[in-house]
Amino acid sequence: MPHPTFQHKSILIVEDEDIIRETLAEFVAGEGFQVATAGTVEEALKLVRERDYDVGICDVQLPDGDGVQLLRRLHRINPAMFVLIISAYATVENAVEAFTAGAFDYLVKPVNFDELTRRLERLFKFQDLYLENQKLRKDLDRSAGFDQIIGSSRVLQDLLKTIRKVAATGSNVLLVGETGTGKELFAREIHAAGPSKEEKFVSVNCGVRPVEQLEAHLFGSGEDQPGLFQTAGGGTLFLDEIAQLPLGTQTELLRAIEYEEVLPSGSSEPVRASARIIAATSRDLMREVTEGRFSEDLFYRLDGVKIRIPPLRERLDDIPELVEYFMQRHCETMRKRVTGATSDTIRTLMAAHWKGNIRQLDNAIERAVMMCETDEIQPTDLPPDLLGVGTSLPDTDDLRSALRHYERLHITRVLKQCPDKKEAAKRLKLGLSSLYRKIEELKIEL
Fold first, then answer.
1. What is the CATH number of domain 312-387?
2. 4-133 sits in which CATH class?
3. What is the C-alpha separation between 365 and 319, in angstroms, rounded?
């Protein structure tokens, strides 16, 4: 009778001896596991790239590599996978090496099935605690005032530490980052973690209105039409794309910041303006100053507390969490049941370039949920143009191999978009002869 704890759990057995591999597979299948087997390192890596497994049972000595090194590679592909190491040559040194590499447990051949069952029961208790702990960590981060910022990458966590410190001061802030990185979202979180979080958060895009209408909107027009400074009160005024603010309006804004007052259009009496300013831009403000399009005085007023919002390509580790978040949101809106995304889909998403950053990812998942006909998003559900941009990431720690992989990918993409090699070489900033040499070296198929 299948073991109730093991129902719906998956296990990968990596063992080069046929009899041991088949016997183990037969036993764990009888216990209720979904089972896959591999006899080599390459076979195991191929299987793990295709789907996620809950547990791996790996022999130490394999024909094409070492089981402990394989363990490290398995964890890079799927950090939530727990691995048991088995060996016929048990030594203290081997056991220490296995545990140091991240093995959950270590068994000696021949494997005792009763002992294996006990170890697996213990493993799943730890795995459940591990997953619950990960969830609690996310919940704790969100309860600390950053409930809408999704991700746990080191880049994002370092950014949130900076934001927490800045938010508490109440100082004006400048957010810089590419389009689609979520600058307004970060601005809202700064407000929510600040000393005036009970006050209003008011947002305006500085490039979408005629000058007169924008100034009336910001500073007010007589007693009947209060401006956004008045509306925000002691809260926060978010000025998006501030580089697009006209020069004359920049002067009025500088006055508002320096003297904490604004003069509504048609009025002779100034009005108090105590709102915290959070400005955002996707442009290089220093260049705008140099080219005369932005006030130098206003620049230095805003540049004192500057926070860079990283593009999505610098926080690729956050993509799985972002996919889950967007998927749940769009499933609710469309009333569809999609429970996840395949490993191939996640790898495709992590290999894309994301010029539109998180906004582009959101749109891609919305489209994928719409097109999905199963309970998991497949690569074919993604936008067609995205499929042509990315490819699987190399499973290697070697920097040269990774760079070579990316170089091949990048040149291939440009050549697809631009078949004229002279034009492609110009876009790549290469000489034509250098491009031909790269095509030959990297074995790029045209």
1. 1.10.8.60
2. alpha beta
3. 11
